[in-house]
Structure to design on (80 residues):
């Protein structure tokens, strides 16, 4: 997550997603997804290809058993 200055805060995702569920890189993609960034921007931020972002998003969705980003957000923040 980012603060008002645009710098990264410590991960809040770790509080809601057990560490064994997602890899460190998947958590990075997830955090940027939760910030509302599109795949292309996530790819730029992480220095990876957009195709890799799409692949990681798919793995995140499967591992978290979410069929939409809305469901994923509810699961990450413990609202499900």
């Amino acid at each position: 997550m980012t603060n008002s200055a645009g710098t990264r805060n410590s991960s809040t995702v770790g509080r809601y997603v057990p560490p064994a569920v997602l890899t460190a890189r998947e958590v990075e993609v997830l955090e940027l997804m939760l910030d509302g960034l599109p795949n292309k921007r996530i790819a730029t931020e992480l220095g990876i290809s957009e195709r890799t972002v799409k692949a990681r998003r798919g793995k995140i969705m499967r591992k978290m058993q979410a069929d939409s980003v809305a469901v994923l957000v509810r699961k990450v923040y413990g609202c499900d």
About this structure: Residues 1-5 have pLDDT under 50 and may be disordered.
